[in-house]
Each structure stands twice: as structure tokens, then as C-alpha cells.
Amino acid sequence: MSETSNKTRLEHDCIGQMEVPANVYWGIHTQRAIGNFPVSGITDSQHPELIRAYATVKRACAIANEELGLIDPAKAEAIRAACLEIEAGKLADQFPVDVMQGGAGTSSNMNMNEVIANRALEIAGRQRGDYTYIHPNDDVNKSQSTNDTYPAACKLALIDAIGPLAESTKKLAKAFHDLADKHINDVTIGRTQLQDAVPMSLGQEFNGWGSVLGAEIGRIQEVSNLLHEVNLGATAIGTGICADLRFRTTATRHLAAITGLPITAAADPVAAMTDMSGYIATSQTVKNLAIHLKKAADDLRLLNSGPHTGFDDLNVPARQAGSSIMPGKVNPVIPECVNQCCFMVFGMDTTVTWAASEGQLQLNAFDPVIIHELLNGIE
To answer: pTM for this structure?
Structure first.
């Protein structure tokens, strides 16, 4: 590596050479990806759970490599220190690759390797780009491939995101149950097929929504169990090529220790390369929650309709003026907003279904759009 000016440094890869801004921590592979994928304008950095998780995976791998004598302890220490900084939220602006990227997440992995390597070089008292000392692929990516580390990071990111989703669902369920207690004696009419049926209370109606959401909390927590299985050490297609035979169990053990999660290694590493079960289950669980949220929002809009020619069973609190031409009109804007979020989640599930079904031969290449859609849907 050599400095061509105060503003750039020259790096090379198997394709050729390229100038990289001197003030960034990424390298040539990331720079190429920036040019290749100017697609959505949404970058990996906008999914902080994924960035944190990937740094955690790389830290576990560095510890394993050192324990097995595959990396010099001083280099491993610098790599671990860089990973810890990224896990703490530092260098968040150094992950500029578009979420809509080809290569099964290779650009994201290269980006992470380069940022860790260059920050580790600084920690070790070296210059960025001095890859003769710490190399992004030979050291940071030692015993690894995109195909085993990227899915591991995706699963950790989903576990991280699912926690707040369960808490939010719990709060909404409680709010419905509180309303149920408040309105338990307020009699209304139950309806089937939009026709009057038999009497019930508004409290019973609110309680029904709360109970359905309460059941969803358990399903959200259950799906995380499917995300605890990782495939570290499987490398490119599950055969473990270029990795020490001991690395698989060692890296998995350290990842479990770091995260405090019951992380296990996939029983069949070749099969695990194309097994999208964890993603599919997560998507279905989030979609199911969205269906129940949409049901509650739809009911609120119907029961609030009128006031003179609609149901007018209850009044949704006024939040803003509802018309620029009809004075005094107020719309149920919050349920309408919830509806639109649910529509987006339905689209998420369709995207995940298609992407998960495209695992031809030994690899599914579409993890990037799956994790992007799932994290967006959960949020």
C-alpha cells in the first residue's frame, strides 16, 4: 500500500487497483461496492443491529483463531479491540454499502473486514492500509467466509430486534386490557358479517384485542430459538474448506459466551447453507402480528365511523384536523397509519418468501434483502 496524496491511498485486489479516500476505514472492496450498487440509498449503517452483530461475530472468530494458534496474539488483540469499538456504536458511518447488493453479502463482509483491519492497524500503531501487518482477509476473515459469518450476524441482529418488538407488543396489549377494565360495563352490540348479532360490552371487545396480542408475545419469543443456530466454520459451501477443523466448535463456543445466548452449531453445515427456516419463521411471526394489529385498527375505524351515519360506538381521540374543505371533520389517523405499516409488513413477508425460495444448489444469495426487509418490518 502507498499514499498517492494526502487525500487518497492506493489499494489493490484481484481485479486491479483503486484509490480509496485516505480518511476512511474501508478499503478497495467497499469502494468498488459503493460504485456497483447505487440502488436504494439505504446503507448497512442504517441497520445498527446488523453492524453490531457482525462485529460480535468477528470478535468471536478472532478469539477462536488466537486460541487455536492461527493468529498472532498481538494482532488478535488489536482486532478484538476494533470489534468492541464497532459494537459500542463507533465507526457507524464506515459502512456505506447499499442494502440492495449482489454477492450474498460479500460486500458487507468485506466492508466489515476492512474497517476492523484498518482500525486494528491504528490501535497497533500502524497506518491504515498497512495490510502486510493486519490483512482484512488473511487475518480478520481467517477461517471464515461471507457465507457462514453473514447469516450468523443476521440472526444475532434479528434476536436483538425481536426483544423491543416483544416489549412494544406487551405495552399495547396492556393498554387494551386497561381499556377493557375501564369499559367493562359499557354495553354495545356484537356484530357478525357486519350485521347486528348479540349484546356485548366494549370492555369485552378491547379485551379480545389485548388477548390476541398477548398470544403473539409468546410466538415472538419462541421464534428467537430458531435463530440460535449458526454455521461458523462452514466457510464457502458448508464443507469447511480453508478452516481449521477445530474452528467450528471453538468459534461457536466463544460466540455463545460473548452473547450469553444458547448458540449452537448447525448439525449439517452443508444443509444449513441454504436453510432459511429461521428467516421464514421470523417473517411469518411478524406478519401474523401485523394481521392482528390491522384487525384492531380496522375495528377502531368502523366503530368510530359516523358520527351521524356510521356505527358511532366509540370516539377515537382527535389528533388533527381531518379536512382542508370540511370544517370540523376529524379522521382516525392513527389506525390509518397502523394499517399502512401493516401493508408494508405484508410486502416484507412476500419479499422474504421469494428470497428464501431462491437457494439454488449450495447457497442462497439473497440474505441481504431478507435481513433488510425483516429489520424494517420489525421496526
So the answer is: 0.94
Contact between 248 and 232 (Cβ < 8 Å): yes
Q: CA 136, 70, 139: angle at the middle one, nearest 5?
A: 5
Amino acid found at 335: P
* Side chain identity at residue 360, one-letter code: Q
Show which residues are catalytic: 323
**Terminal-to-terminal C-alpha distance of the chain:** 41
Classify residue 377 by burial, with Cβ atoms within 10 Å: 0-12, 13-18, 19+. Answer: buried
Cis previous bond, 307, omega within 30: yes
**Cα separations (Å) of 60 from 54, 71, 141, 275?**
10, 13, 11, 23
Q: Is 17 helix (H, G, I), strand (E, B) or coil?
A: strand
Q: Which residues, other chains included, contact 167 with Cβ-Cβ below 8 Å and sequence gap of 6+?
A: none
Confidence of residue 2 (pLDDT cuts 50, 70, 90): very low
Q: Tens digits of per-residue pLDDT, 33-79?
A: 999 999 999 999 999 999 999 999 999 999 999 999 999 999 999 99
Question: Can you tell me the mean pLDDT for 95-123?
Answer: 97
Cβ(284)–Cβ(349) under 8 Å?
yes
Contacts with 370 (C-beta within 8 Å, 6 or more apart), sequence order: 154, 276, 279, 351, 352, 355, 356
d(CA 294, CA 346): 11
Q: Which residues contact 71 (CB under 8 A, 6 or more apart)?
A: 62, 65, 79, 139, 142
Residue 220 is inside which H or E element, if any?
helix 202-223
Q: Give the span between the Cα atoms of 117 and 360, in whole angstroms.
A: 33
Say how many residues make up the chain: 379
Dist. CA 267–CA 236, nearest whole Å: 16
